[in-house]
Amino acid sequence: MSSLSWRLIVVAVALVLGLAFTLPSIESVRQSPLGHVLPGNQVSLGLDLKGGIHLTLGVDVEKALSNSLAQAGQDVKSFAQEKEMTIIRQNMPEPKRLEFVLATPDKKDAFEELFKKQFSGMRILKSEVVDDGKIKYSLAFTPEYAKNLEGLTVDQAVKTIRNRIDQFGVAEPDIRKQAGDRIQIQLPGLKDPDRAIALVGKTAHLEFKIVDDSVDPAKVAKGLLPPGREIIMERIAAPNGEYTERPLVVKSEAVMTGELIADARVNFDQNNNQPYVGLTFTSRGAKIFERVTGENLKKRMAIILDGKAYSAPVIQDKIAGGKATITGRYSETEARDLAVVLRAGALPAPVNVLEQRTVGPSLGQESIDNGVLSIGVACGAIALFMLVYYGFSGVIANVALVFNVVLIMAGLAMFGATLTLPGIAGIILTMALSVDANIIIFERIREEIRLGLPSRASIKEGFTRGSLTILDANVTTAIAALVLYEFGTGPIRGFAVTLLLGIVASMFTAIFVSHTLMDMWLRGKSAEARLSI
């Protein structure tokens, strides 16, 4: 089989695959009998084309560090008790500093050795002797550990939000970290954006804190609190279904957080069929919950969700088995949504909605129409120029141009990429790159013809020498596109994706397809046949 035959087969296969992945994106084709045999891949439309919501969230990493430090303090206390060392008066006077008193000063060296060995991420800021020879320690995370924990907090928040969004079946959600502990979320094509915003923005930051009922209510009213205490509002459900709030004094440090939850389910009270959320802790969480309830008998434990206490039951006995409940006269939908966010993972820190934009579907359809029109006008103008300036060779360039667009759309569908408005701009740019490559080759062929070479030799020489120039130019453009994709945000990444796909497609169509079509046109013609160029 000749070289031309092999090249024709490659072009035919590329054309069939391109059409197979491009056509399902057309609604009429997708609903036809042909659509049932074609691949199910479609070009996903971005937020600016399909409509939807854009959110920018800020993650409160300071709160995450504070919670982690409080939990680390509980772990230090637990390890010390196992070695018969007594720790008392544990509190957090500042969000990033933990204090406690070692009541067994004779074991100071042993404690510090244990601390150094077991808690490498923490450091002792200072230690001082207090009453009766007891030793007061002030602890904090090391700067390296704190910085790593901040990054992990944002990463976990991104993962948690992605798990929640997956429950809605949103096509091609764009969720990514940004500078300054921020998260950008784009949810194209949502039919119920209000509920999605409520669930995505719902922190579901669950904390368990011990209530301090010894504080004088008069002092609470004046905001006068002992060190290591804070006021939160307790949510009280009235019989008529309304809610009231009252202040509740709790210890600042959380004895447990929602990160230790393994599962959350909606259950119903057998007496009045009222829905509530049942929690199951991880094995580590179950041990901590059992220890905490055993150490705080006859005290109240506040179950705090997003800064509000939903219940504060009295601990009557040590609770084993790793289970707890959240009640509060929820509707079934409220309880189900709460279980969803807790099961998908409670956020490691509170988040705030810093920016919210909604793009309506009508505006998105207008963008689609304008985008299609711009591609059509660009194709028409380029095709007319090539036809007038290069004659029959311009026809070949126009065929390669259409082929190029088909391959780009097929690539978007095949790799599950999202087409955005900047992506359409990328397609138009790559159309220009494709034609520019043809122009370089055609001008080279013209030069060879002027030097007296026959058409076949001129075509071969033009494609051989012109291809090197095209390769150099496209490699540098591809590097720029890769940088845009790596460091850019959603719209810029959409532009970079179509640009990269367009570079690959334009090199294939301009160098390989155009060359094959020219050789096929010259096949069977005499060596002296003139080329219309």
- What's the count of strands? 19
Largest sheet descriptor:
6 strands, mixed
Please identify the structural class as seen in this structure. Answer: alpha+beta
**Biggest β-sheet: strands ordered side by side in the sheet:** 11-10-16-15-9-12
Residues in β-strands, percent: 15-25%
The parts where pLDDT drops under 50 for at least 5 residues are none
For CATH, the homologous superfamily of the largest domain is named as Multidrug efflux transporter AcrB transmembrane domain
CATH architecture of the largest domain: Up-down Bundle
Number of helices: 15
Question: What is the CA-CA span between the terminal residues?
Answer: 29 Å
Rg computed from alpha carbons, rounded to a whole number of angstroms: 33 Å
The gross shape turns out to be elongated
CATH topology of the largest domain: Multidrug efflux transporter AcrB transmembrane fold
The chain-level mean pLDDT equals 81
Helix content bin = 40-55%
Describe the fold and architecture.
- The protein has helices at 3-22, 27-31, 47-50, 61-82, 108-118, 143-166, 193-201, 217-222, 283-295, 332-344, 361-390, 392-414, 421-450, 455-487, 490-522, and strands at residues 44-45, 52-59, 87-94, 97-102, 122-129, 135-141, 174-178, 182-188, 206-210, 229-237, 243-251, 256-257, 261-268, 275-281, 301-305, 308-311, 323-326, 351-359, 418-419.
- The protein has three domains: 3-51 and 360-522, Multidrug efflux transporter AcrB transmembrane domain (Multidrug efflux transporter AcrB transmembrane fold); 63-144, Gyrase A, domain 2, CATH 3.30.1360; 154-358, Gyrase A, domain 2 (2-Layer Sandwich).
- The chain is elongated.
- It is of the alpha+beta class.
- The strands form five sheets. It has a six-stranded mixed β-sheet. It has a four-stranded antiparallel β-sheet with strand order 7-8-2-18.
- A hairpin with a 5-residue loop joins β5 (122-129) and β6 (135-141).
- It is built from 15 helices and 19 strands.
